[in-house]
Design goal:
It is built from 17 helices and 16 strands. By secondary structure, the chain is an alpha/beta fold. The strands form four sheets. Strands 3-2-1-4-16 form a five-stranded parallel β-sheet. Strands 6-14-7-8-9 form a five-stranded parallel β-sheet. The longest helix has 23 residues.
Length: 468
């Protein structure tokens, strides 16, 4: 049998059907498809795919185990490095990480590593995976984890396995951070996947305290000085939305993507009135931005009943920062792409509601500092998009609450916490940080990688502290 250069396709809901529901778009591999995909792996001795994995999963090993039908061994292999495989198998940009380095990608398509990771994790969950609670020493040191997103979940799980008593503090009413409020149900099921993975941490003995706003409920200094914690990890993410700073952004019908997605994902506004959080979506929606968050906002608006949804992005399709899969799915579902287009004003009526989005056409000039070609306004190209809802998805930054209430904690000019890249150590002894609060908005798996590195550093710090 000759080796296939093409990966096995993932079964999906029909685009016309899924555009009207919040069920998961991709349906996962069957055992037959997973086996067929696993047989494509060349089992390279140098394992170049591992170089692209921020948490360094032994990828050839788990794929070989899938091929052999040893799924219990495969989940064990993955979880030695990654505590959230069902999440990462769905939302990580594998095409820019592990799969980018796959030898098969030189002549054809890379092995579908992410799809196989998801298959293994989903198979383990369907069997009813059991987790044995850890036994902690009576004098076990205590670590506080601020924020329950990917970085916090990663550091909490690793520290618990090392024997530390971990308490995780979450500002919202459910743990999970961006996994709960940012990524839509149709990409990442909340109860079935996210909360299930988090419950695994609870079974390990991690305590999770919700509705706890660090910087208000407690400060970091109070956690260290009054609440008995020996170290603190800050993983509060990047949840403060950026706006365009154009006229009309305060009109009714303008949302930040952060608010829009939080209402829909975490607060289940799409189930209104069964769930009490309402959301107003008009008939014609413009989503400003070109990243994954913009795609999520556009596809969510479509599912909430919008008749026409446009992505408004100032560069060309080649520069879109969103994953290719997300762009492909958006196009299949009928999202309109207004490329090389920049908004200049949100228009409204005398009652204060959005009636349109004034835009100009752009063309690409020389590359800017990001390496992408700079968009330049085309003279006399103004036009108006007929819309009644505008969703701003041009990025987000750090909420300043923790930084502003913590003595001796250095931040950079953007307000992100300054921390050592390899250890997560900050300027304040005993305080570590990682994920988007340090790097700015990035990916789930990069935040998890930062959490893993910080866990090792916190362990070393606490061992040294105990031995003094």
């Amino acid at each position: 049998m000759s080796l296939s250069l093409n990966r096995n396709p993932m079964p999906e809901q029909d685009p016309q059907v899924r555009a009207k529901n919040f069920q998961e778009v991709t349906l996962g591999y069957t055992p037959e498809l997973a086996h067929a995909e696993a047989t494509r792996c060349l089992q390279c001795k140098t394992a170049p795919c591992r170089k692209g994995c921020p948490v360094e999963i032994d990828i050839p090993a788990f794929i070989k185990q899938v091929k052999e039908g040893a799924l219990d061994a495969a989940i064990t292999t993955i979880k030695e490095a990654n505590g959230l495989p069902a999440v990462c198998g769905r939302v990580c940009p594998q095409e820019e990480q592990c799969e980018k380095h796959c030898v098969l990608a030189k002549k054809g398509e890379a092995v579908a590593i992410g799809r196989l990771e998801r298959y293994v994790a989903d198979s383990a969950r369907s069997k009813g995976e059991t987790i044995t609670p850890l036994e902690y020493a009576k004098d076990a040191q205590k670590v506080a984890v601020v924020g329950s997103g990917p970085a916090g979940l990663s550091v909490a799980g690793d520290l618990a396995k090392m024997g530390y008593k971990v308490t995780m503090f979450e500002a919202l009413h459910l743990p999970g951070g961006v996994l709960m409020y940012g990524i839509p149900e149709f990409r990442l099921p909340k109860d079935e996947v996210v909360q299930n993975e988090i419950n695994g941490l609870r079974q390990l003995g991690v305590e999770i305290v919700v509705n706890a706003v660090i910087g208000s409920t407690f400060t970091v200094d109070e956690l260290l000085e009054e609440e008995g914690f020996d170290a603190v990890f800050i993983g509060t993410g990047a949840g403060l939305p950026y706006f365009m700073d154009v006229p009309g952004e305060n009109l009714n019908g303008v949302y930040s993507a952060n608010e829009f997605l939080t209402r829909c994902n975490l607060m289940k506004a799409y189930r209104f009135p069964q769930n009490a959080t309402p959301i107003h979506v008009g008939k014609r929606v413009a989503v400003v931005g070109g990243g994954n968050v913009a795609m999520d906002g556009a596809r969510t608006a479509l599912r909430l009943g919008a008749e026409h949804v446009s992505i408004v992005y100032r560069r060309s399709e080649k520069e879109l920062p969103a994953r290719l899969e997300e762009v492909h799915h958006a196009k299949e579902e009928g999202i309109d792409f207004q490329l090389l287009t920049a908004p200049t004003e949100v228009l409204g009526n005398k009652e204060g509601w959005v009636t349109g989005l004034k835009c100009v056409r752009m063309e690409l000039g020389e590359p800017d500092a990001s390496g992408r070609r700079r968009p330049i306004e085309v003279e006399n190209s103004e036009f108006v998009l007929d819309v009644d809802t505008v969703i701003i998805a041009i990025g987000q930054g750090p909420n300043p609450l923790v930084q502003s209430t913590t003595k001796g904690l250095d931040v950079n000019r953007k307000g992100n916490i300054s921390a050592d890249e390899e250890t997560g150590a900050t300027s304040k002894p005993g305080v570590f940080a990682g994920g988007d609060i340090v790097t700015g908005a990035a990916t789930v798996i990069l935040a998890m990688g930062a959490g893993k590195k910080a866990a090792v550093a916190i362990d070393q710090y606490l061992r040294a502290k105990r031995n003094k």
